[in-house]
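<instruction>
Derive structure tokens from the sequence
<data>
Labelled lines for chain and fold
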Amino acid sequence: MGKKDIEVLIVEDDLRIAEIQKRFIEKIEGFQAVGIAAGYVDAITLIDILKPDLLLLDVYFPDMNGLELLRELKLHSKQTDVIMITATREIEKVQEAISIGVFDYIIKPLVFERFKQSLLRYQDYHEKLSQLGKANPVVTQQQVDKLLRKEMNELNNEKSYLPKGIDPLTLEKVMEVIGKGGAGLTAESVAKEIGVSRTTARRYLEHLVSIEKIEADLTYGTVGRPERVYMSIG
């Protein structure tokens, strides 16, 4: 008998975004989207019925605040972990979410690589917790430290690993260009600067976003679609 999939409930009032999250989940082995809740009543009902392992939770809804729902879950000792996925960037909201006990906090627009990284890290945590529970109802200090720590060694290894199609010298050039970019650069401007195609530049930029070396945002011009811009963190 194989391992049971981690069951995920999406709590998001924008059904288009919820569907994107659902499709992202379907691409990651070991996870299953078990439902979508667009508001407070749906969320509470589905949490009680489905008892999901993980919630993907936004902050602002027409009938509730996601942080209040998170606080309510923790107050009633619901055994459900939470990853916030939201456009909310205010530091006090981020701090509040962390203090209540979110597993991760992802800022929209959602990038698949960053999303996948978060879910795989949660999967690792979930498996370790399950194994510890089966082995012994009590744990050692070392086991607790390993669970709570962000696994910095693993994270550093993950960041130093270069996937197929990412050359270290080109990656360094992209980082240098972004470092001089100030308010933000598009994939097209980075491509021109280092002499590669726009598609190649975007691949390197999205890789850097996924490992949290740089950050991305949307800029809205006077005409056309909003454009993704990249900048140094901090």
The mean pLDDT is 86. Strands lie at 6-11, 31-37, 54-57, 60-61, 64-65, 81-86, 104-107, 214-219, 227-232.
